[in-house]
Amino acid sequence: MTSMTTSPDASVTLLAVDSRAYAVDRAVEPLRWVFRWGSLVMLVLMVLLPFFQVITREIIGNPVIGLDELARYMLICTVFIALPCVVAGGANIRMEEILLLCPVRFIRVAKILTAIVVVATFATATVATAVAITKNLDNATPTLGMPYWLFFGAALISFGMTTLECGIQLFKVLQGRPIYITFPQEQEPEEELNLPEDMKI
Q1: What's the rounded mean pLDDT across residues 2-16?
Q2: In this structure, is residue 2 part of a structural domain?
């Protein structure tokens, strides 16, 4: 990962920077922490629920009704809750290799326009999801009777947080700062690891 070697307030061209470098990132970090760990919990549940259902069906012979539906809901939540983390870290497909072949001034304009379009897109998706929730307050899933607003709620929270992340990226683009963030756990160790001789390159 790219490490931060200049002043946080300087105009830099690095693609990613430690999430603790700027005040705006430090302010949003608690929310990012919730989304990171929330997506991990959803992923673990998504794996464990079908495993538990196989055990109850094949070994005990008494499957739990609605567990399949709950596992599908965990899949939905995993995708949506992880989306803001993917966008913030720049892990989505961006095709920046092509953009880097263009002149510097064009790259800046393209990044600004892209950030504006992305903010508008996710903001629209947030509003559309909120409207969908209001129109389906009385609907529920057939097996568990789970309200539809729970399903749409994951999308609403995800799109709202992603809109915030894209707004922060737009702010950084306008200031000429690195757009994406990395986390302290992703940084290269400052000191050389004390490896055995046969493991050193």
Answers
A1: 43
A2: no
Higher pLDDT, 117 or 188: 117
Tokens representing 90? 């720049």
Does residue 128 belong to any structural domain of this protein? yes
Range of the domain at 142: 17-187
**Amino acid present at 81:** I
User: Does pLDDT of 161 surpass 90?
Assistant: yes
Strand partners, 182: 18
Residue 80: alpha-carbon gap to chain centroid: 8
Domain-located, residue 194: no
Tally Cβ neighbours within 10 Å of residue 119. 19
pLDDT band of residue 160 (cuts 50, 70, 90) is very high
Average pLDDT over the chain, rounded to an integer:
81
Residue 91 has pLDDT above 50, yes or no: yes
Residue 5 lies in a domain: no
Amino acid at 161: M
Question: Which one, of 21, 179, 9, lies nearest residue 107 by Cα?
Answer: 179
In this structure, are residues 188 and 1 in contact, taking their beta carbons and an 8 Å threshold? Answer: yes
State the residue for tokens 């302290």.
184
Structural domain count of the chain: 1
